């Protein structure tokens, strides 16, 4: 996977320690807390530690999405313990939702993912109440595979359909 992507309006680059303040803000938004969960990142020091753990983990891919040099969201590909394949994800600050930014950023990463020779299948999970994520996953070409429970949380499991 590439370190950087560009689209019509956006620049994506791999998460770095300089993104810590933004990550602290993102993981404490109401949408993140409701649909993804508490990460207990309450200070810049905690955010730096959180980001450093992500950067040091070779099975986590996080890209910071920027619009006019302002960080507005993230795109992720993560290997989760409860899934046999990588999990695709995204999260954006509330003021940048429903403007096509998530679709644009996700498409840039997914288009590259699909060019990997013999690319593996890709999954995505969301809680059933997260209707915006469900619509975006379907728009991106993910199809509902099954309902699962992970860490006592009911989830919808999606699989990226091959074009």
UniProtKB/TrEMBL annotation:
PROSITE patterns tied to this protein: GNAT (PS51186)
PANTHER family: GNAT FAMILY, PUTATIVE (AFU_ORTHOLOGUE AFUA_3G00765)-RELATED-RELATED (PTHR43792), N-ACETYLTRANSFERASE DOMAIN-CONTAINING PROTEIN (PTHR43792:SF1)
UniProt name for this protein: GNAT family N-acetyltransferase
Stored InterPro entries: Acyl_CoA_acyltransferase, GNAT_dom, N-acetyltransferase
Species this chain originates from: Pedobacter panaciterrae
Domain of life according to the entry: Bacteria
Record SUPFAM superfamilies: Acyl-CoA N-acyltransferases (Nat)
Domain N-acetyltransferase positions: 10-163
